Amino acid sequence: MHELSGLLGTAAAGVAPEYFLLPIHGADPVYRERVYCYELYHQMRRLWPADSHYRLNGEIDKRSHPYFADGAAPKPDFLVHEPGTGNNHAIFEVKSALGSEDGTIKDFKTLLHFRHQLGYVRAIYLIYGASPAEALAKLQRLGLMDQLAAVELWVHPEAGMPAERVAPAG
Predict the structure, then answer these.
(1) Domain region containing 134
(2) Whole-prediction pTM value?
(3) Are strands 78-81 and 55-58 parallel, antiparallel or unpaired?
């Protein structure tokens, strides 16, 4: 699905500020991953090509799926696939700039499993609320830079801006 990159960038630009940072009565706004993901999903679905055989699905619970006979039950944020077939295109994991280090490591394990063991063509890790430099620094701290050959790093720095793919320097 060659148009996925452009679609993701454009859809992210459509995420309004109140979905990017959730306003809280009597407190400062906060990042809420589910709120952001639901709006990003909505924006992506609005742009989805009607003639595509691929579908965008959010948080598909893989419990009892034959791929996971070992009892694992990952629940990726988004999948781009042809349901009911082995035609798997992309898996997404999404985290805010304040996402935990343990959560980031878990997400990378999920992305790599889907990419290497389940035949997904693309594995996308999207960080919102961070600059490219901040996102790369976090992955560097966690020792995940070598995984960027298999996992695409995308950042969505602020509401109203498109998401963009970030390549490590060098």
Answers:
(1) 4-166
(2) 0.92
(3) antiparallel
Distance (Å, whole) CA 161 – CA 158: 6
Domain count for the chain, please give it.
1
CA distances from 20 to 11, 75, 98 (A): 13, 22, 13
pLDDT for residue 72: 63
For the chain, the helix, strand and coil percentages under 3-state DSSP, each to the nearest 5 = 35, 25, 40
Task: List, as own/partner pairs, every contact residues 73-78 make where C-beta atoms lie below 8 angstroms and the sequence separation is at least 24, other chains included.
Answer: 74/110, 74/113, 74/114, 76/110, 76/114, 77/33, 77/37, 78/37, 78/41, 78/44
**70-83: per-residue pLDDT in tens?**
556 678 999 999 98
Lowest-pLDDT range of 46-60, 67-81, 150-164: 67-81
Amino acid (1-letter code) at residue 93? E
